[in-house]
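Weekly structure sync, notes
Attendees: PL (lead), two postdocs, one rotation student
Agenda item 3: pending single-chain targets
PL asked that the sequence for the first pending target be pasted directly into the notes so everyone works from the same version. It is reproduced below exactly as submitted, 867 residues in total.
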Amino acid sequence: MRPRLSLGLRIFLITALLVVLAVGAAVAVTYLFGRQIAEQTARQALDRSASVQQALQLARLEQLELIARVFAADPALTAYVAEARAQEQYLSILDQLEERQNELGFDFAIALDPEGRVLARTDDPDALGEDLAERPLVAQALDEYQAFGVWRQDGRLFHAVVVPLVSGDRLLEGFLLAGFAVDDLTALEVRRISDAEVAFLTTFDGQLRVVASTLDPALGQQLLRTLAAGGVLSEVMGGEESAERVELRLGDRRWMGLVRPLTDASGETVGAAVSLASPDVQLRPFERLGTILLLVGLAAVLVASLLSYLLSRRVMRPVRQLAAAAAAAREGHYDQRIAVDRSDEVGQLAAAFDVLLSELREKQDMEAYMAELSRTLPSGREEGVEAPRQLAVALLGLDLRRYGNPKLAIDPEHTLDLLGRDLRRLQTAVESRGGRLHSLQGQRLVAVFEGENRAFQALSAATEAFASLAGAPDLGRDDPPSAALVEGQVLGGSVVVGEGPAPVLVGRPLQQLESLLREATPGDIVLAPAFYEGLEGAFGRQGVELVPQRGLLGTRKVYVLDGGMAARVTGVVPAVAELPTPQLVERPTLSEIAPGTVLGDRFEILSVLGAGGMGVVYKVRDRQLDDLVALKMLKQEVWGNRDQLERLKSELKLARKITHPNVLRTFDFGEVDGIPFITMEYVRGITLRYLLQKTGALPYSAGLRLARQLCRGLAAAHAVGVLHRDIKPENLLVEPSGNAKLMDFGIARPIARGLAEGQTQPGTVVGTPQYLAPEQLQGEPVDQRADLYAVGVVLYELFTDRTPFAGRNPMQVIVATLNEAPPPPRQHWPEIPPALEAILLRCLEKDPERRYATAEALLADLEELRA
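Predicted structure, written out during the meeting:
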């Protein structure tokens, strides 16, 4: 694989390249614009040079004309010329010309007679009598009495004028021709004003020569050769062109030139004026500027390169850390923290990656926790093996007296079939109240209840058992069961008997239960004194007062009640025999639904998943959809209340809209064989309650993960307007992967009318009161903040293995919830992070206004915590 440059080095090289490009672009732009400006400046200099030459020529001619007229207007000079011409004393005229030439500063002077012959001239004293009448300038003066223009003489050029010499009586005595030489000073003056080099050219003896120039002699001769070779001079001096622009190279420079003809008075070309401007010269300042820019740019490149290198190292430091962390995370090492000390995109990336690592750590810890837990779960021959532990329990003993009649042996198959049906009913009654069947000895059944509300749940299960057995077929009602209830500490576990383990309970409560069952008569529920005293408040609120009785076989006092009194206390629907006749005929009981049953030719019952206050949940195969679902069959006390049933239907319409990974989907609401049902998503997992019972408080990282998942699922429900109202560990299902799903949306049973009227009857609430908000216990209207209170209780228990408020019976829990402040979680977990403790206590505020307003707000604070 071809090696690649690191990101930091690439940033450094790109930055350096950008600086180089910027400097190069600046130099190039400077050169290009400088070149354009230089050429434009050169053309402007040529144009100025032509204008300056014309203006200078005109000014010199005006100056010559003025000087000549002053000279010619001198009467003494005119008279002297006239007299000397008459006497042919021409030398005296020459003396006068030379004297005035020195005084007035012109370069040559010629005195002419009226016919244009030379009387005297300062540039050639021997030219006396020379006829100049044919020279254009003189010829014009003979015709017009004055003339001015360029005068060529012996390879030289002059600006000259001709003025008449007039005597006092206005007689023409001759003409005066005076001129200024076109020389190097003239060229320098033009260059000074126009910034262009100038060369004046003419011919002498047929040869082109430079008359005056600002160029050095070598460049002047090169100029002649270049112009002659190009044919430009022949065109201009031949009168074919009035002016022509040329480009040529002289020496090591490029020049732009303007060639103009010089003409005499008749318009004949006597020479040429060449103006030269070099763009290279004009470009020099820009070249110097470009050089400066280049040098500065190189320095900037070095400085920028150094700074970019240092900056790239600083910028890339967190990126390198992120890359190293990502590589470590790919190997499964999530135990690292990413420092976030900046707010730019890199900082945001670091923060997001730090959150990701934290979530991965939590997921890893949760998976490890679930894996370790799964190792302790029984499997195969270990099924049912429990570690020895001290248990606080309520025990329910049921004596199925009808099966104690020896005559039943006449039809043993029918008898056992009825016994199996009754046991299924009893199992449903027990498990729906949170208990479990422990043992069956002959006609006697023992059930165990744990938890803070165990006594009340055991009494409710006994009431429901009496109700379910009251209308059992074939055996009639002459042999009703009897029951006994005790509470206390036992030793629980399992022992290996034969090839497999068997659950056992050891302790005095079992002996007491056996004793009470012997005291019970058919239809009686016998309570041990300690059991009754723990529920005395619940009995009193319903107007049921029991009088202690002496046992028939013992001397200890007991409390006895029948099924009707128990139904008043617990709120369980009375025996089936007391229900209206149509319900007896059309609606079967849940106790008759067992594995193997097919409901409505659609739902094949595979197993019982659990039971709750509203019904029993089964694992079923939906034959129509050929899929596994969870089926919840509602109890009689639910479908017997039509108002509550209609409310459930409307709430489930909303609950079906919740689609979230942390919510157990609700599919449908219907009725089969006369019993309302709810179908839900089937997920293989265990409840949070089971986790807490097995391990106590969860590890911090695993607890954080479950807490966030709980809030996410609840936020999804609140978003569609669904309140849960029964959030508790039993309703949080944890999959083997560690993903948590909140269950029973929209079907949580509300506080019944007893609480709405100000009562606090425990039996009117589903689950345990520990998870109900104060306003919910008082029958006040509730909103999503009641759910957040329940979340706070669940999280409190999740991290401390305790609920905020405890009591021997539901009433004590309710009183504590309404009147006491929750103990700080640090009392149970001294190492709890202060931020987490503050979150828990805010959720548990008694005033809803002081709690979190939304699940999203609670989730946001939980997201700030890191494992």
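Discussion points:
- Confidence is low (pLDDT under 50) at residues 574-588, 748-767.
- The first strand starts at residue 108 and ends at 112.
Action: rotation student to compare against the earlier draft before next sync.
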